[in-house]
Amino acid sequence: MKAAKDLLPGVPLIHSPFFQDVLVESDWDAETRRVAVDLNRDGFAVIDFPEPELEALAADIVASVHADLAWDRWRSGELAELPRATDAWAHNESVRRIAANAKIVELLGRLYGRPAFPFQTLNFAIGSQQDIHVDLVHFASSPENYMCGVWLALEDIAEGAGPLRYYPGSHRWPAVFNEHVGRRPTSDGDPYADLGAFEAVWERLAQVHGAQEVRFHPRKGQALIWAAGLHHGGAPHTDRTRTRFSQVTHYFFDGCAYFTPLYSNTYAGRIGFRHEITDVRTGQVRKMDVNGQPVPWSLIKATAPPPPNPPSLPRRILRRLTGR
């Protein structure tokens, strides 16, 4: 009889319908098993980040990545928010080291059943204050669910500092894409228009499941791993005497095609392939393949959505999302 993990090689182990058998058959240590159980049940797991030099790395990030922020204007209320630093790993070694942490990458590989690699970093000085959302509309893979995030506290996070918030178990709710909410990206449209269609569904899902929001108040050095389908966001940052220094790293896994569902209209021949996904560890672009079959450039080119018109995001972000 085949082992449970071999029955569905295209399903992450933590999402397997045979998860209990996976646990029985695995040789995972006690901590890996705990994290796997938490992710399977709740869609997230809290860990102590395995970086012995975290104090020095955090201090460097605070001093360099966030050095030029308009703190006085934000604290006075003149500014509603301060910008996050996207992909600071490209010019800051401390950010890159956290994202590329070998123990984290190895842990994720065990949990998902195939090697992981970091592809994006986000660094925050204050709370994101984002509405509840699901990463899957922005970051998706085929086979599905081979994406996760790791949120790391670079300081103790208090309630007024806009802590991370989420709905435990929401990764089990139905995944919602353009075709489900009636969105049809067009050649001359803005793919970021009508996001309210998703937000209305996500809000109603929380209501019908009677979901209770949980807020993460970690101490410095604690991290939260979350599954791609977890409904999460940022609480309001109400105490402007406090900061919320933190780093998010997003990870994909080997043997997948990577794409942006928000840009895609598959049945009209549009797929927002992320064909310039870069491995943070090496700086090299990762090839896409599914079951050993490379995704041909002819398909990527033929299905590429045009750039948004009018653009609704900074060009650097549009380029990262569309590969253009």
Which structural category fits the helices and strands? Answer: alpha+beta
What general outline do the C-alpha atoms trace? globular
CATH architecture: Sandwich
Largest sheet, described in full?
6 strands, antiparallel
Mean pLDDT: 92
| CATH fold naming | Jelly Rolls
Summarize the structure.
With 324 residues, the chain is an alpha+beta fold. It has helices at residues 4-7, 19-25, 30-42, 54-64, 71-75, 93-99, 102-112, 178-181, 196-208, 297-303, 315-322, and strands spanning 44-48, 85-86, 116-124, 140-142, 147-153, 164-166, 214-215, 222-227, 232-234, 246-253, 257-259, 278-279, 284-285, 289-290, 293-294.
SSE layout and pairings?
Blueprint: H1 4-7, H2 19-25, H3 30-42, E1 44-48, H4 54-64, H5 71-75, E2 85-86, H6 93-99, H7 102-112, E3 116-124, E4 140-142, E5 147-153, E6 164-166, H8 178-181, H9 196-208, E7 214-215, E8 222-227, E9 232-234, E10 246-253, E11 257-259, E12 278-279, E13 284-285, E14 289-290, E15 293-294, H10 297-303, H11 315-322
Helix pairs in contact: 4-6
